[in-house]
Amino acid sequence: MSDYTLLAIVCGLGTYLWRGLGVTLSARIRPESELFAWIGCVAYAMLAGLISRVILMPSGSLEHTALWQRLAATGFALVAYLLLTRKNLFAGVIASAAAMYVVLRLSA
Amino acid sequence: MTARSGFQQGLLHAAGVPALVLAAGYIGFGALSAGHGLSLAGTLLSTLLIWALPAQLIIVEMHTLGAPFFAVLLTAVLSGVRFLPMTVILAPLLYEARSRPLHQYAAAHFISMSGWAWAMARFPAMPPERRLGYFFGFTSTLMASALASTALGYLAGDLLPPMAKLAFVFMSPMYFLLLLAGGQNDARGYLAIVVGAVAGPLAHFVTPQWSVLIAGIAGGTLAYFAHRAWKRKGLAR
Q1: What is the pLDDT of residues B85-102, one digit of tens each?
Q2: Rg of the Cα trace of chain A?
Q3: Which of A34, B34, B93, B203 would give a disulfide with B215, using CB separation of 3.0 to 4.6 Å?
């Protein structure tokens, strides 16, 4: 077994610790409690923070796109999703990719 | 309408945009791993066992830079800490009288950003007894798509033209953005989303590695107390 394979297995076990601990803790916290409400806020804020960071300051291959290109494609996706198609997720996501492709093509 | 089981319904719902968006991310992961000369077996095991793309990317990068085993392990495991609040919130929604704790512990492995955000948006309107089956149907389809895409990216990732690849990669933040924008949230949920969206980039300036966690805790706490203060004044429900 290679080092990398072993690493994948051990890191998988380590990551599961959080998920398993989450189930154990959830049995001890009442869903109507204030603690639960706070944990929910943290979970949503984490996800929202991650998304906005990826759009505003991406790392990896999206670094090759400009901020205005990402914002234009994001705006188009939101309009397609919320206004044009009444929350059709498929249409919204495809619109975002199409908009990004067109914007990149036009500015190339 | 025919009576589909929760599992079948979840499977069908995943086999569209959710599987496609995930495929885009995992094709990239497979291509990256092949580019670094890592084994296909290890790359597939990474998707199956870790099931968290950010951690998987961290491991590839640190490992190929020659970081010590325990440094990689620590960084990868710490990056998964977001699963703790996510699982705490989701597990009670998956519970119903006939289910056993074992079901919840098994479901916990399948929680990812994608499955979680989808479930949080749909579960309030779904009868509790359908949710566990639905969740397994939905997430096992995602897992199958991710494994196939990892292999595809590993074997054929470099064939995509660069612009199409960028458009592909852009789909995954958009998918989460639209899920959040269209979900059935209360005022507190929306407040947490808005404050978190501002806190994320700010925290990234200070500490890129810890930004997700710090933005989540600081932004979520701020949103929680702001909502409570408003509620006291009778401005929000």
Answers
A1: 999 999 989 877 666 788
A2: 20
A3: B203
Count of residues for chain B? 237
The answer to whether B172 touches B165, Cβ cutoff 8 Å, is no
Cα pseudo-dihedral B122, A20, B220, A32, rounded to 10: 60
Q: By the CB < 8 Å criterion, does B11 face chain A?
A: no
Which residues 130-189 of B have a C-beta within 8 angstroms of A? 162-171, 173-182, 185, 188-189
Chain A CB within 8 Å of residue B206 CB: no
CA-wise closest residue to B109 among B21, B44, B49, B47: B49
DSSP one-letter code for A100 = H
pLDDT band at A50 (very low <50, low <70, confident <90, very high): confident
Which of B102-109's residues contact partners 24+ apart within 8 Å by CB, and which partners?
B103/B132, B104/A23, B105/A20, B105/A23, B107/B132, B107/B135, B107/B136, B107/B139, B108/A16, B108/A19, B108/A20, B108/A22, B108/A23, B108/B83, B109/A16, B109/A19, B109/B51
- 3-state class of B4 per DSSP? coil
- Which tokens is A59 given? 């790392």
Q: Enumerate the domain spans of chain B.
A: 6-184, 185-237
